[in-house]
From TrEMBL:
Residues 284-365 form the AGC-kinase C-terminal domain. Residues 400-411 have a biased composition (Polar residues). The keyword Glycoprotein does not apply. SMART domains: S_TKc. This is Kinase-like domain-containing protein.
């Protein structure tokens, strides 16, 4: 028997596989399509984390089993200063759990809605950090596919981190992807083309995100899918600098990010995707080495004396609108053969991860494709983007600021993911 805690009626063996009993449950701070996010504290180390828990029944109902497994695998591969990294993964009979780096500064959507257009100096700093993270993901052969203010979280020191890998995939060097996934207002024009797309789409989405942070609106408008597609493909990129000033270097950066030709887009022109960013005058004399080790002081520090999230997440549990999360023992000796195919797939493929004991491994290219199993035992769809391009929603978001829906033709349904760490 290893280290034991007797906080409950039965001792907790911290040398056994990680489980929910290893953590104290604190306040809820986010809500996604399948579950919530709350602050937790590891009982032995006293470290604070964010616990994202995904309800299995809701996940199966929305045909998102493959997405959850894919997200779990991708997060095991990732460890970067400006990514919300996974530290543990496990499950019980009702939920799958991701234990992630805790970000107390809130998401950029939260700050954008409360402060309006954000200062140029602040946004440039965040862009440098996010560019570093995206270049890292691409080196791991991962394309995020859903970059937007909602999916960027700040830590207590004001550093930006990419989160929510629910529709992320490994991209292929041999063939382009054709599935529609992500939030339409941030989608690159090549996603709607006939030739397919690859990792270059992340730089476009980052450009739309940066534009929105600076001007509190998105550059392309559309009241329906076809109008939005047309605007993304053809409308001129305009800058409301008469209302909100932006220097020439900032405008030049946006033009290079929101470039319709992927081969000319910044980040896509050299082997080292960060080269063009390091040399761009918008960053001035930024010390990139110190940036990537978080030695630089961020120009915006979140106010930790107030909640940097929607407090209604806690209110739902207080009013018993939703069943609160509790520590629950697993059923002993579960017969996998008797489980529904989707539950069995989760049991077998959503494996335990413990960063203190496990060595991060890459599943590329071995995890492509990921299938969702049906009751007949047949594979229902691919998660690697090899399905034909199909329309996935009936309305697209306009250019106004606000949380857009997420579309994923891999699962044939939209997922509304408004919250930090959402899934």
């Amino acid at each position: 028997m290893g280290a034991v805690c007797c906080c409950f009626s039965e001792p907790i063996d911290f040398d056994s596989e990680v489980n929910l009993y290893h953590f104290e449950l604190h306040r809820a701070v986010g809500k996604g399509a399948f579950g919530k996010v709350r602050v937790v504290e590891h009982k032995r180390t006293k470290k604070l984390y964010a616990l994202k828990y995904v309800e299995k029944a809701r996940c199966i109902k929305q045909k998102a089993v493959a997405n959850i497994i894919q997200e779990r695998r991708l997060l095991e591969e990732i460890d970067h200063a400006f990514v919300v990294n996974m530290r543990y993964a496990f499950q019980d009979d009702q939920n799958c759990f991701f234990v992630l780096d805790l970000m107390l500064g809130g998401d950029l959507r939260f700050h954008l809605e409360r402060k309006g257009p954000l200062p140029e100096k602040v946004v440039a700093f965040w862009l440098a950090q996010l560019a570093s993270a995206i270049a890292y993901l691409h080196r791991q052969h991962i394309v995020h596919r859903d970059l937007k203010p909602d999916n960027v979280l700040l830590d207590a020191q004001g550093n930006a981190h990419i989160t929510d890998f629910n529709v992320a995939i490994h991209y292929s060097d041999r063939r382009p992807h054709t599935s529609v996934a992500g939030s339409m207002a941030y989608m690159a024009p090549e996603i709607f083309g006939q030739q397919g797309y690859s990792w270059q789409i992340d730089w476009w989405s980052l450009g739309i995100t940066i534009y929105e942070l600076l001007f509190n609106k998105r550059p392309f408008d559309g009241r329906n899918i076809e109008r939005m597609k047309s605007a993304i493909a053809k409308d001129p990129l305009q800058f409301p600098t008469d209302l909100i000033p932006l220097g020439d270097h900032g405008i030049n950066m946006l033009k290079q990010l929101i470039e319709r030709n992927p081969s000319r887009r910044i980040g896509c022109r050299s082997t080292d995707q960060l080269d063009d960013f390091r040399q761009h005058p918008w960053f001035g004399s930024l010390e990139w080495d110190r940036l990537e080790t978080k030695e630089l002081t961020a120009p915006f520090i979140p106010d930790l004396k107030q909640a940097n999230f929607d407090v209604s997440y806690e209110l739902d549990e207080f009013l018993m609108v939703e069943k609160p999360l509790t520590h629950t023992k697993r059923k002993a000796n579960t017969d996998l053969e008797r489980l529904k195919p989707e539950l069995r797939q989760l049991e077998e493929q959503f494996t335990v991860y413990d960063y203190d004991r496990s060595r991060r491994q890459s599943y590329y290219p071995h995890n492509q494709p990921v299938f969702t199993m049906t009751a007949t035992g047949q594979s229902a769809h691919y998660q690697d983007g090899s399905v034909p391009l199909q329309p996935t929603a009936t309305i697209a978001e306009a250019s106004r600021s606000g949380s857009p829906e997420v579309f994923n033709s891999d699962t044939r349904s939209p997922h509304s993911l408004p919250a930090p760490y959402s899934s």
